[in-house]
Specification:
By secondary structure, this protein is an alpha/beta fold. The protein has two domains: about 110 residues, Rossmann fold; about 250 residues, 2-Layer Sandwich (Dihydrodipicolinate Reductase, domain 2), CATH 3.30.360.10. Helices cover about 35% and strands about 25% of the residues. Strand 10 and strand 11 form a beta hairpin. Helix 3 runs parallel beside helix 4 and helix 4 runs parallel beside helix 9. About 50% of the residues are buried.
């Protein structure tokens, strides 16, 4: 089986290394790279050369971003080539379109590496759904933000110092906005909800990040027996669903509170199997590379995931609601004191909480918010 890699960054190099060392009967024969980076005889700067090559059976897209990744994936599917991608941004934006093209061409479109790094999350959801309906999911889906929060707690350091260290270690990009503002988790939440709930998930979900989290915030939450984690969440009930991304003040004894460094922990709940948790490396070269390679044998085996977005699920924000703690200069409406400079707003939806935060940020750019779930 001959495959082509689109992109040779962190994930692309991981895919190439794993195939070279561990996979028989699969060869990386072409690699798409920029014209000034053609350092390997397999490399080309021409995508047209790849898509027109009948000897290439499958394309692994690991470029990142929306374009030209979107155009290249569409062209590969239209040419009858199977596609594997780790690119959560492009999948979240064009999932239904890619599935339609893959179905029309009769080829697989495989996305395991787009959520959860090396965790077999998408495959596990599909396996659970053979019998059950998935009723909810939640999880730590971004290794960068988890590393930042973990290091702030362990080292007693401020956010900016830890972020700089994360950038030095390669966990965070030079522009960390996608991670610290929750955009990366939003993309992964959209993909997860689409697969788990059979819905073309809305992109208009409430999204909050950890940009304004401080060492003092973590100390206050610790005094209340909690710590903060950035979670993607989804709920499905009676043909309705809701999704959100937000900091959550989880109890210190919980598994989520104790996830270290850049690891991920994702949870689903289903009708008969109940709660399942999946833990593993969420970032780097080899974990998502492994997830991409895990998808490759499914193509010649004829295994094609079934994604059905034809249902009429209603988006119902009230399915994700609860109590929220705000740290801001002016107390939000209908709030009560929770700690010094912090207020509790009870019984509101994630969307309403995000609106409260936007109002607080308009007068206090340092404001921070975290959901406060009830302890079991």
């Amino acid at each position: 089986m001959n495959i082509a890699l689109l992109g040779f960054g962190t994930v692309g190099r991981g895919v190439d290394a794993i195939i070279r060392d561990s996979v028989k009967d699969v060869q990386v024969t072409r690699i798409l790279e920029l014209p000034d980076r053609l350092t390997d005889p397999r490399m080309t700067a021409s995508f047209d050369e790849i898509v027109a090559d009948p000897a290439i059976d499958l394309v692994v897209e690991c470029m990142g971003g929306l374009e030209p990744a979107h155009t290249f994936i569409c062209a590969a599917l239209d040419a009858g080539k199977a596609v594997v991608t780790s690119n959560k941004a492009v999948v979240a934006a064009h999932f239904a379109e890619f599935v339609e093209k893959a179905n029309a061409a009769g080829v697989p479109f495989l996305i395991e590496a787009s959520v959860g790094g090396g965790i077999p999350w998408i495959a596990s959801i599909a396996k659970v759904r053979r019998i059950d309906e998935v009723t909810s999911f939640s999880g730590i889906m971004n290794g960068t933000t988890n590393y930042i929060i973990y290091a702030m707690r362990e080292e007693g350091a401020e956010f900016d110092a830890v972020l700089a260290k994360a950038q030095e270690l390669g966990y965070a990009e030079r522009d960390p906005s996608a991670d610290i503002d929750g955009i990366d988790v939003a993309n992964k939440t959209i993909i997860t909800a689409s697969v788990a709930f059979d819905v073309a998930c809305t992109r208009s979900l409430p999204v909050s990040g950890i940009r304004n989290l401080t060492k003092a915030d973590l100390e206050v939450f610790a005094a209340h027996g909690r710590t903060v984690k950035l979670l993607g969440r989804g709920v499905c009930e009676d043909g309705r669903y809701a999704v959100s991304v937000e900091p959550v003040a989880v109890p210190l004894p919980s598994l989520e509170a104790n996830v270290p460094t850049n690891f991920n922990l994702v949870t689903l709940d289903a009708t008969t199997v109940g709660e399942l948790k999946f833990y593993g490396q969420g970032a780097g070269m080899l974990p998502p590379g492994n997830a991409s390679v895990q998808d490759i044998p499914d193509a010649p085996a004829g295994t094609r995931p079934v994604y059905d977005f034809s249902g009429s699920h209603e988006y119902a924000p009230e399915l994700i609601s609860g109590d929220y703690v705000f740290r801001c200069a002016v107390a939000p409406a209908d709030s009560e004191p929770w700690d010094e400079g912090m207020w509790l707003v009870s019984g509101v939806t994630a969307e309403a909480a995000r609106a409260f935060l936007d109002e607080a940020l308009s007068t206090d750019p340092t404001a921070f918010m975290a959901a406060l779930p009830q302890e079991d």
